[in-house]
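Slide 14.
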Amino acid sequence: MMSMLIFFRKPLVFLFLVTFLLPIVVPSLALGETFSPSEPEISAGSAVLIDADTAQVLWSKNSKEARAPASLTKM
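Slide 15: predicted structure.
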């Protein structure tokens, strides 16, 4: 029994490491491939992204176009 345990020790350690380390490594690799700094796909007619701390406009779509508000109910 002991000789069998010694014989299977390395494969068991390898299997253990693959089982627990592979799920950590694979999602990070997949995330790197899907991230693209291109312009986001937004179906709205206009949009603005503003940094709350600096009030700097980070991104805008048709920000100079005059548009009617969607709703005045909450104002």
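Speaker note: The first helix runs from residue 2 to 7.
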